[in-house]
Amino acid sequence: MHYDPIKDIFASILRKFPFLRVFFYKLLDLMFLRSWYVRRELLRIRNVFGKKEISIYDAGSGYGQYTYFITKHMMPCTVYSVDIKEKWINDSSKFFNQQKISNVSFAVEDLCEIKHQNKFDLIVCVDVMEHIEEDKKVFHNFYNALKKGGYMLINSPSIYGGSDVHDEKEESFISEHARDGYSNEDLELKLVPIGFSTYRSRYTYGFWGDKAWRLGIKYPMVMLNITKVFFIILPFYYLVTFPFTLVMMNLDFLTKNRVGSGINFIAKK
């Protein structure tokens, strides 16, 4: 299944109706369990720095959802928000200017080519690395971009059912993925030789989270790929299914999963 065309549809809607963007951010934060995990870890990392102003690199910012969260909940800070999609960066930049949020700057960047040196206290990279073939090169670039003692938060599908792949014969649910996902061991094997140490690692989307993802995200995406008419039916679908999805998401969020189809990994330089 191709996920990007669906994301581009939402981006085009926000482009036409920018006043919906904050509502859309809140909807994403509610609907996607990964956002629950990411936001919790972001706040924990922020507390480590105390009242010090920190510099944050949102690497692959997409719609700008986490950049917005950071500006509202992690002050004092500056944010450098980048993505490879120029239209998405332009949309976000325009919106943040309209909101008079002055501590954020935007740029179009390819993470394989960045040359930042000792610049950031925190790198946030949510559901990006599974799209990049040359991940070791990007991890090296991130290491160089971090200040000594800085943190890198990686959120990705895991090898344990991430991308909805459960055995060697299955293909990724998301056609744009360069890999099915990571394990804790995979990430440590790639990061520790560079100089990173593991700060915290947690599997997400365990038994209940996986069920919630299927009901709340996968099945609607499959139907939208079949016909865009489903956009009309979508509100009624969620009216029926979301209470069940919400319960399952909470069960996952409050459980320490032994394995899961997602991984939230924090490394320290």
Task: Walk me through the structure.
- The chain has 269 residues and is α/β, with parallel strands linked by helices.
- The chain has a single domain (4-268), classed as Rossmann fold.
- It is 46% helix and 19% strand.
- It has helices at residues 4-16, 21-31, 33-48, 65-73, 86-98, 135-145, 184-191, 207-226, 230-253, and strands at residues 54-59, 77-83, 104-108, 120-126, 146-157, 197-204, 262-268.
- A 7-stranded mixed beta sheet has the order 3-2-1-4-5-7-6, sandwiched between helices.
- The model is unreliable at 169-173 (pLDDT under 50).
Task: Label this structure with key terms.
269 residues, alpha/beta, Rossmann fold, seven-stranded mixed beta sheet, 19% strand
Short account of what is shown:
This protein has 269 residues and is an alpha/beta fold. It contains nine helices and seven strands. Residues 169-173 have low confidence and may be disordered.
Explain the layout of strands and helices.
Blueprint lengths: L3 H13 L4 H11 L1 H16 L5 E6 L5 H9 L3 E7 L2 H13 L5 E5 L11 E7 L8 H11 E12 L26 H8 L5 E8 L2 H20 L3 H24 L8 E7 L1
Parallel strand pairs: 1-2, 1-4, 2-3, 4-5
Antiparallel strand pairs: 5-7, 6-7
Helix pairs in contact: 2-3, 8-9
Summed over residues and divided by their number, the pLDDT gives a mean of 90
Radius of gyration: 18 Å
Distance between the termini: 36 Å
Tally of separate domains: 1
From the 3D coordinates, which CATH architecture would you assign? 3-Layer(aba) Sandwich
Strand segment count: 7
Binned, the helix content reads 40-55%
The CATH superfamily appears as Vaccinia Virus protein VP39
SS class? alpha/beta
Q: What's the CATH class label?
A: Alpha Beta
Oligomer: single chain
Discrete helix count: 9
Question: In what order do the strands lie side by side in the largest sheet?
Answer: 3-2-1-4-5-7-6
- What is the overall shape? globular
